[in-house]
Design a protein that fits this description.
homodimer; 200 residues; mainly alpha; 10 helices; 0% strand; elongated; DNA-binding
Chain lengths: 200, 200
DNA sequence: CTTGCATTTTACCGAACGGTCAACTAGCAT
DNA sequence: ATGCTAGTTGACCGTTCGGTAAAATGCAAG
């Protein structure tokens, strides 16, 4: 880890929790720089603009998830439908631990940013959409496997996957509005009752 | 409508579409004043702070919904489960017409604001929560009526109502991420497949 | 030893931010 | 007519915003 990459990653590390716990517009470059112990000129050496910083932050969050809870949840060794339970549980425990540390439920950074910036920045919207799209694929593959195994009745796996993702985001939104991760615990399991029939 | 209330409502009228289409932090008092043809000093005569303005804006949106689509959808003359269809349809058509006019899907102002500000302003969060809470009650009463009529099997009406609200918000979020109201059309109807069993 | 490049520092830009204030105006009740 | 008050005006506050530019520094290859 040379000095350059260290500075860059210190900036990202300072920005991550701030964008997550507040909002894109509410966090300034100056604050990030102070927290990272970096001068503003240095910041703009690594990031052409605030927009580019948040892109990098999104990438880091996405990687973190993809290699953490998501990889655990969508473990092929697990029975398909249990993977979905696992993912919902992971969301619950993650939000719960954040609340214990931070005092507040912060919700899903992708959902947060989507609602805040997607009318103002199509590049950001596309990036967030791609993340949702990948998540949907994981759900779809899981559902297809479950159908193939006879665990669940045939359904429109693509639409049902999208519905499940929507539900998960909605549950996290409601939980955030109550500042209470237990909402995820109560409502989460109903995700498996969602179903879109295959068109005839 | 005397001059005073006219100024006040012009401010709110200018603020509404801006908070809806962008975000709380991204819309400034100055811009609102210019658009409303009002001086800043006048603004602060009616609203002690930006926070108070957005509270009033939320109230207006809530009233608009309560007396518009929501009143139509939860019409006691309609069979219970059709009311839920109606509400989802209303959300779809509303977002669609916004997109036709504005070029973008703006989503649900309550969901948008919840994710943006609820970690930073507990009063705003409480207000938004109260709106969600009222919506949930409408869903719950509808479900209870459907159960009483034998239209659907018994279930935990409170939790299922909350799940349906979460799903609706999630669907609108995903639709916004795709800037495409058709997502609501495709995913919306699956709301009726959601169900939380009553605890034994 | 020098050249060249990546990085960092520092000072600065104009614009916008939310909010304040004192003076002024208009309408209405006494 | 006078006094009170709600409303309005426009100038102003300090701060922060995202972003820039130039000079200084460190370091490695030729």
């Amino acid at each position: 880890m040379n000095a350059a990459t260290d500075t860059r990653s210190r900036i990202i590390a300072a920005a991550k929790p701030r964008f997550h716990s507040r909002s894109y517009a509410n966090v300034g470059i100056q604050e990030i720089c102070e927290s990272a112990g970096v001068q503003k000129g240095s910041f703009y050496h690594f990031f052409p603009s605030k927009h580019d910083l948040v892109m990098a932050v999104i990438d880091e969050f996405a990687d973190e998830w993809a290699h953490g809870f998501v990889a655990e949840a969508f473990d092929p060794a697990l029975p398909p439908m249990e993977r979905i339970d696992y993912l919902v549980d992971a969301a619950y425990f993650w939000q719960k631990s954040i609340k214990q540390i931070h005092g507040r439920m912060l919700g899903c950074i992708f959902g947060n940013l989507t609602l805040e910036v997607s009318t103002q920045d199509d590049i950001l919207r596309a990036k967030l959409l791609a993340i949702f799209s990948r998540a949907k694929t994981r759900f779809r593959e899981t559902l297809e496997e479950a159908v193939a195994a006879g665990t669940i009745a045939p359904l429109d796996s693509d639409l049902t996957a999208e519905a499940m993702l929507a539900y998960l985001e909605g549950v996290i939104l409601l939980a955030k509005s109550q500042n209470d991760p237990e909402v995820i615990y109560r409502l989460g399991p109903a995700i498996k009752t969602l179903r879109v029939e295959t068109a005839v």
